[in-house]
Amino acid sequence: MSLHALTVAEAADGLRQKKFSSLELVQSLVDRMQKVDPRVKAFLSIDAEGALAEAKKKDASPPQGPLHGVPIALKDNLNATGQPCTCASQILKNFVSVYDATAVRKLREAGAVFLGRTNMDEFAMGSSTENSSFHPTHNPWDLERIPGGSSGGSAAAVAADECFAALGSDTGGSIRQPASVSGCVGLKPTYGRVSRFGLVAFASSLDQIGPITKNVRDAALLLNVLCGQDPMDTTSLPSPVPDFTQALKQDVRGMRLGLPKEYFVEGMDPEVEKLVRAAVAELEKQGAKIVEISLPHTEQAVATYYVIATAEASANLARFDGVRYGFRAENPHDLIDLYGKSRAQGFGTEVKRRIILGTYVLSSGYYDAYYLRAQKARTLIRRDFENAFKECDAIMTPTSPTVAFKIGEKTSSPLQMYLADIFTIAANLAGICGISLPCGFAQKMPVGLQILGPSLGEESILRVANAYEQATAWHKERPNL
Amino acid sequence: MNYETTIGLEVHVQLKTKTKMFCGCVNQYGGAPNAQVCPVCLGMPGVLPAPNEQAVRMTALTGLMLDCKISPHCKFDRKNYFYADMPKNYQISQYDKPLCLEGGVELMKECYPKDAQKDVSASKTVRLTRIHLEEDVGKSFHFEDSTGVDFNRAGTPLMEIVTEPDIGSPEEAFAFLSTLRNILLYGNVSDADMEKGQMRCDCNISVRPVGQKEYGTKIEIKNMNSISGVRRALAYEIQRQQTALAKGEKMRQETRRWDDATGTTFVMRTKEMAHDYRYFPEPDLMPIDTTVWLDEVRKGVPELPSVRKKRLMQERGLTEYNAGVIVADLELGHYFEAAASQSKDANGIANLIVNDLLRDLGAAAKSVTESPIKPADLAALVELTDAGKINSKQAKEVFAEMFQTGKKPMAIVEEKGMSQVSDSGAIEKFCEEVMGQNAKIVADVKGGNAKAIGALVGQVMKLSKGKANPAMVNEVLKQKLSV
Amino acid sequence: MNPQGIDVTYVAQLARLQLSPEEIERYQAQLSQILSHVENLGALNVEGIEPTAHAFPQTNVFRKDEVRPSLPVSEALKNAPQRVNDLFKVPKVVE
User: Fold this and answer.
1) C21: domain CATH number?
2) Is B283 near chain A, with CB under 8 Å?
3) Most buried residue, A397, A407, B145, B412, by CB count within 10 Å?
4) How many CB contacts within 8 angstroms connect chain A with chain C?
């Protein structure tokens, strides 16, 4: 088998057993990128030279961690010293990071090699990677379709075997949804499990970093490395980090799996629904019990999300002003002009739209009606999940109501785009964990099954996901590139 | 037409923690530009704040010292506005749930300007509205056609102390700031040196005709660099506003900048057109529960100046004036304690410090810590005087010499052969000689003019080259003249 | 809630975005649409409900007052669009 088709576990094991070298691994990926990335365009920048040099060093040194010598790709909103960090925005086009994100540092300490920065929707705002200010990314399963977003580059790169795994970030589904429409595994940890220090903030109370991988085992492996309390992020949880791979040894007998009735309604592609229900049936066959649950405030989730996320984003993005770093417009006549022009020229349309909405909902006279109210609605949504998890151990839903649409198909209606986030958004509002994994194909495009777990319940969702994955062969399918 | 003045102050105090409020950069004045910054205090993409425990505790301590209610639960909020010295274009501050509420500062008489102290009769307390914790911004340097920003100061922990509009005059404002500063020094939470920007003050002032119920238009004054500057700026503003009102002009709510060089204020260009700060709770920071650690902080509350003043009066026998002067300056207090611990005469020590030491230090532009006379030596001088070894006139000579040379008092007394003469025989001899030479004065005294004895005492002092014990001389003369 | 919709011109000013009149018009229409969906939150009964400040609140998460190394000045200014000496340069600000 070609080296590029390996999983993280296989690569790490193979390196340990000296079946191949890190240099060979990196070279195989570089070759693969050269072959397919001109069509997939998953990457914004590739540092082949740097990665090969680093791989050589790894080969010459004793194994330092579980990912020693394994190349991993980074979404371009994660700071890594000396690397670009564009967030797919013109405003950070030439920015070079001066520090490591904690998650990046942990990967480094585990021995990983970094080979490139993946494409994304600008500042993680979007569900298709069409909002990248550089170029769209193409779904490896059908190059005319979107790879999902905002971590579309990471998902496409994994799906196309351009890397063994990639890091993404998830604020309203940005790991799970691209994983779903690109046919890979994507996991959003419980809020606070993984330090956000170094992740360019979109919505502070919703963002999490997570792995996008070829299978569930790899996701567990990466999670082991990424999780842990960080003094640089005081919202990170003090909870101990178990060995998540242990969860893969358990079956689902006796587990209660909840199906929320509000998620199986009109507007969903009937083939998607069929595949998700088939997946549920498979788990039932394996001994899980299926229960119908209710998440009564599902309908308010999108509105709640778009008020809170844009409000926080409007403040988080205020720092991009052309003063200390980033794009500065030419010949401003005063400071206000510098701000106004740099930000108007540097930010893309979707980003500006969300900044305006977010600024508005916080503005004088509107705070109570919008932001405060949305935070109360959020409490109700959290409670929905707390109540649901009394009745079940994990919740099963489709990740996305449809398969990947064509590039350009949906860009005219922002509201339509927002409504497509319906299945993934609530997990960020509630702070719980979720995973998406392949459960079949509809119209020849991948369909994702989402499994949501209670906060700190990654072991439960990994358990269910693994049980399903091991009984099926979807994860072994590869696009024809 | 008589006018009354209403003044409220917003005081920003830099806390003397080792590190900044939200990152581990050193908190130090005067570093090379942008040499004390990190991704966090530069507001780089992806950074997060980590709150300084010591800063939170110091703010709570300040609240306890100023009689505030310490909120059991409080949080941080984002205050959103754009400016070149703002690393994130939002400041992490506290909006609706600050660390401390209410409280008050009793103005110490000694903290009024020297020329206004005699006019202070009643005691006055200025109430506080709140104290909250926030981060400082960077510093701008203006050149001919550009501005340069240094972010070393950005992120310094800042306490914002807001008063109720209880202050009625520039002198009271001066007294408030001095009293406050002193308390902050006692608590070791800040050096509060206005010239170094460690304490900054914005004033809100309005003037209205006496008897009018509604406040006049509130005008904000900024850019005073010293406590006396605040006094001058307010005095100017009151005059300016009164003059304008008397002419029938209408006051507009505005922000004015004090220019110390010209001694005037002028309208500032507004920074932010719409002051819509869009406050919302800081999602990157967890809330604070003070109930868990407040008792520990309470143990660290020092003896406050007003309490120490009473104690010095009651337990050490100091006069009110002396006690007031000594507690109004922390270093002076330390000096006093060090000296008084080596003497039985605390008030004698206080007198010497308050009258002589301060005068000479002032003239030499030295601070107490730079005093050429060490506390132990000052105490020794007092002991010598009290024991009658030298008289008070001699003591002044010795003091002057001590201040000049730093020598010990006993050494100076011996060098100058100054020992006071208290031998009764010698004194009798002096008295008889003087009486013999001044028959007219003697007759005067015997004739009923008791005061004339002073002239005879003076003659004895002259004859004895200043060494005679004046009290004894007086006694002996009285005896001899049978008065 | 607000029947007039967003005053995009005013809000863009607050957010320091210098938009063209055409952009303002386009955003006005799109945001009206989005806002009317958000208005649905108005119908929700949130009586007595506490707002969520943090998904999993903890209290008193502090950092010890210990010095950590700062950036070398060259790194601090590495991405500066313009500089004057070791300062970040901006157009002259008049106070």
Assistant:
1) 1.10.20
2) yes
3) A397
4) 167
